[in-house]
Amino acid sequence: MEGQPVAKHSQPNLQQMDLVDRCNEIISAIFWDLNAACQMPLIVQGKPEGIDWQYYEIMKNSTQAFIDQTFMALVECESNPANASRHIQALDILSWKIYTICAHAEAFRRLFETETDEIWDKVLELVKAEERSVEVFACTRGLEWRGPLLTKASDREWPHLQEALAPEINTAVFHPHQVVQTQDGYLRLATFEGHVQANISESFHNAKNFPEGKYLRLRDADTYPLLREPKWGPCALCGSLERCNCQPVFLAGDLVELREYPGKGIGTRTLTNLQPDTWIGNFVGELFPTSHREGYWSFAGTFCPPGRTRRLQDYKANINPERFGNWTRFANHHCEENTHAGSFLAGGRANIAFKVDQKINAFDEVLINYGRGYWQGAGRKCLCGSKNCVSKR
């Protein structure tokens, strides 16, 4: 039963697993669970068909039960301080706010019952070190974390509880990928030329920017300039050679945060482990002909059949993410990148998406190679420090 003090925990099937890897798995699972806790209330608002209401109720009830056990442990600790449970130990490390946010994650609740003392200590240490990311993640996604505490707040004067429940600024009015954690611990909005950068889920274009016969076929200009050609290959989701209705969803992008990096500006940091060969995000923005706004950098959205490098001249466009885009536009450059951009064919569209090259651990930066051409611009010098740095050649 949750909440009972256990002196030692053991888990034989983890004997061969590295401690750091196991802790990374748990912290990754905590953020995945928190994301689900943030998304489920939004999903059920419209009462759509097919919703697993039992699962939704279990999510809510499990969190409340965990918090109830915490208050029971506090009462028991008053009469027997020497027998402090893990709930009490965790509250000595974490604030009420961070503790209650994490309580919405099944992986966090299981940590109290199933993991060894060594793993439990290490994960709590990680949560403490990353408490700002935990807080920003939950609050920018509108998690109603106070609910489980409100039933107990009026019972008596619990230490530090009222200050934890004090009103705060609502950051959920912005998309999480418009909010940047600064180096000094504050938050700011991502801007370009004085405007807050809008977050969009898919690229868009103005057909007037694509003259007939010059950049793409006119019949496609009325819909979308980068329609998927059946001859390029099958849909990555359903395998159909024809254009289909599949809509790619890159869930890993929900587990990415924006933060400032010294000397680099805004960068992208993953809150979960990312495995090799995983597609993690669709690079989106406003589409323009390749001749548009020369001198401004934008991702060259030149699509070609998988495995080929020959350009398809009638399907050439630039994706400009300066004003409109998503988290992928903030990925910083490194000459030894851990992610690359490639053609991703799905539904009726050809896309550029980010694919992981090597395992990226939670709290590491997502890095991509901008290409040699980017650094040929006037005054640009790469400072990545790699032995293969393009600016050293």
Automatic annotation (TrEMBL):
Residues covered by the SET domain: 254-371
SUPFAM superfamilies for this protein: SET domain
Pfam families named among the record's database cross-references: SET
PROSITE patterns (alphabetical): SET (PS50280)
Name of the protein described by the UniProt record: SET domain-containing protein
